[in-house]
Write a structure and sequence with these properties.
- The complex is a heterodimer of chains A (307) and B (249).
- Chain A is an all-alpha fold.
- Chain A has twelve helices and two strands; from the N terminus they run H-H-E-E-H-H-H-H-H-H-H-H-H-H.
- Chain A has a two-stranded antiparallel ribbon.
- Chain A starts with 6 loop residues before the first helix and ends with a helix.
- In chain B, the strands form two sheets. Chain B has a six-stranded mixed beta sheet, with helices on both faces. In chain B, strands 2-1-4-5 form a four-stranded antiparallel beta sheet, with helices on one face.
- In chain B, a hairpin with a 2-residue loop joins strand 9 and strand 10.
- Chain B is globular and about 50 Å long.
- Chain B starts with a strand and ends with a helix.
- The mean pLDDT of chain B is 93.
- The chains are: A mainly alpha (307), B alpha/beta (249).
- Chains A and B meet through helix 7 and helix 8 of A and strand 6, helix 3 and helix 6 of B.
Chain lengths: 307, 249
């Protein structure tokens, strides 16, 4: 056989193809299914599907504005939360620990990433929601109720705010591992450049972090995309109310939570299934675009700084 | 009084004896050149002086290192480094900062200048001293990737100068750049010794001859010869030095 490829090699190569193609096929079929199922509602309701917040299946009125804004708000809160934890964690692991301690810390972060989200969901709905209400939401409302975001009195802990922060906690490992990788990939020559001009540790970290800023931003964009899809925690903490509010302390809904809680009963109402598919399409579209943007930013940064 | 004094300094990395009983004295406001073949430990000497050697957790150091009269290993390493600028073998400007900021940051961090006008002044001074000002004065807001390798290295020299160091360490600063740029750096260095004590590492005897006041010949981790440049070049005491100066090793 030409080029020294043996018969066995060829069979081995051929055996790799079916699983790869199947996986791609599944992706394509998923997108097509979602697309074709949402067409009915999209053509029927058009733009009002995402511009309206009225949710009245019995009268065939569907508006996805509340869940879409809910998803965007919770994901924004989530990446802000993740940022608060990820940056200090990254600096602690990369700059202030070594050997055994470093291994333990990175393992804990990795381990947290492997915890099923249902565990976070249970913890968040049982303990975290009431803690947040008592120590964060109530004080914020008491002192800053002039700001629309904090204007409503938190009734239970279940709210857009709690969902965002809880999802944020769950994506900390994901975001941290990306920022940490970028940070540790900064060439030694640039770390030494900092020390070579007399930087203290804090000043070095400041310079290196500003160098890693595009990678941090990319990690947050990817974290945002992941938060959009986070379902279990959202269902358990967001309060599942289709009522649209400008206040993040009121219960709300996200697209993922809407689908998870409504899909089983959707057959009872006309168009409901198609509307849910349309909402999934919306999330899928944003997630794909953001993932693409985030990943290409990371790659561009690596090419510029690391190589 | 010397700017830098090393007495019986030994460095072991992972059990390997890298520097052996290094003793050297660098007088103030001179150019002290450490020359020797690759892998002889030249760079390690520089990294002992500003304690960058400690970034390697496997490095063990003994002996005495005095910098500006202070015991280098008894004072805070960050304080120590505020007096010692370093230019590395491979140019390493900060890629995310403009040419101006690359120089200004060193002045800002070391509180050399705070106000805008002071900063402008020191950036210009440093770039002039590094003989780069004329080439970049119209594009201070550009990023260093627009510069050639030699210009980048002069930018790094300017950055080190902007911290107004008392001592400047140069680790083969011209090893990776073209001869024209190398000459410019040599000229810049020669003009600087009025203000700064300079310790330079090189594997080129010609370069040593052009810029040095004092030279030390290092081979396999030991200093085998040192003295004023004329004495070492005209009257080498060891065969190895003689061969090295002729370019035979």
């Amino acid at each position: 056989m030409a080029m020294g490829v043996s018969r066995k090699d060829k069979i081995f190569f051929l055996s790799l193809i079916p699983p790869s193609i199947t996986l791609l096929g599944i992706l394509v079929v998923t997108v097509i299914t979602i697309l074709s199922n949402s067409l009915e509602s999209l053509s029927l309701y058009g733009l009002s599907l995402i511009a309206s917040s009225i949710w009245d299946p019995e009268n065939l009125k569907y508006g996805l504005l509340a869940p879409i804004l809910g998803s965007i708000t919770t994901s924004t809160l989530a990446i802000l939360t993740a940022l608060v934890f990820s940056i200090p964690l990254t600096i602690l692991i990369a700059e202030y620990s070594s050997g055994f301690v470093k291994n333990v810390l990175s393992s804990i972060v990795e381990l947290m990433g492997g915890i099923p989200t249902i565990v976070y969901a249970i913890w968040a709905s049982t303990y975290f929601a009431s803690l947040l209400k008592q120590y964060v939401m109530d004080p914020l409302h008491a002192y800053f109720s002039i700001i629309p975001l904090f204007s409503c009195k938190p009734i239970t802990g279940f709210s857009i705010f709690t969902a965002g922060v809880s999802i944020g906690v769950s994506i900390v490992p994901y975001v941290t591992s990306m920022i940490l990788e970028a940070y540790q990939n900064i060439p030694q020559a640039l770390r030494e450049a900092c020390l070579g001009i007399g930087c203290t540790k804090y000043e070095s970290v400041k310079v290196l972090m500003s160098l890693a800023k595009p990678a941090v931003l990319a990690s947050l964009i990817l974290g945002f995309a992941r938060s959009l899809g986070e379902t279990t925690i959202a269902v358990a903490t967001v309060g599942n109310s289709m009522y649209l509010s400008s206040c993040i302390f009121s219960p709300g809904i996200t697209v993922s939570a809407l689908i998870a809680s409504q899909f089983a009963n959707a057959y009872l109402y006309k168009y409901a299934e198609s509307v849910l598919y349309a909402s999934a399409l919306f999330i899928l579209f944003i997630a794909i675009v953001l993932s693409f943007v985030g990943l290409s930013m990371l790659i561009k940064w690596r090419v510029k700084v690391v190589v | 009084m010397y700017a830098v004094e090393l007495d019986n300094v030994n460095v072991y990395i992972e059990g390997k004896h890298i520097l052996k009983n290094i003793t050297l004295r660098v007088p103030y406001n001179t150019i002290y050149v450490i020359m020797g073949p690759s892998g002889s430990g030249k760079t390690t000497i520089l990294r002992v002086i500003n304690r960058l050697i400690e970034l390697n957790p496997n490095a063990k150091i003994d002996g005495s290192v005095k910098v500006l009269g202070y015991d280098a290993f008894k004072i805070d390493p960050y304080d120590l480094r505020k007096h010692i600028g370093m230019v590395f073998q491979i140019p390493n400007p900060f890629p995310h900062m403009t040419i101006y900021d690359n120089v200004a940051i060193a002045a800002r961090i070391n509180r050399v200048a705070r106000k805008r006008e002071e900063l402008d002044e020191i950036v210009r001074w440093a770039l002039e001293k590094a003989m780069l000002w004329d080439e970049v004065k119209d594009r201070l807001r550009s990023y260093p990737h627009v510069l050639s390798g030699g210009q980048k290295q002069r930018l790094c020299l300017a950055r080190a100068l902007a911290m107004k160091p008392k001592i400047l360490l140069l680790d083969e600063p011209t090893a990776n750049i073209d001869p024209v740029n190398a000459r410019k750096i040599e000229e810049a260095i020669s003009a600087l010794k009025e203000e700064i004590t300079i310790i330079m590492v090189t594997h080129s005897p010609h370069q040593a001859a052009r810029v040095a006041d004092h030279v030390a010949m290092i081979y396999s981790g030991s200093i085998i010869e040192q003295g004023p440049v004329s004495q070492v070049f005209l009257n080498p005491k060891t065969d190895f030095t003689a061969k090295f100066l002729k370019g035979e090793v």
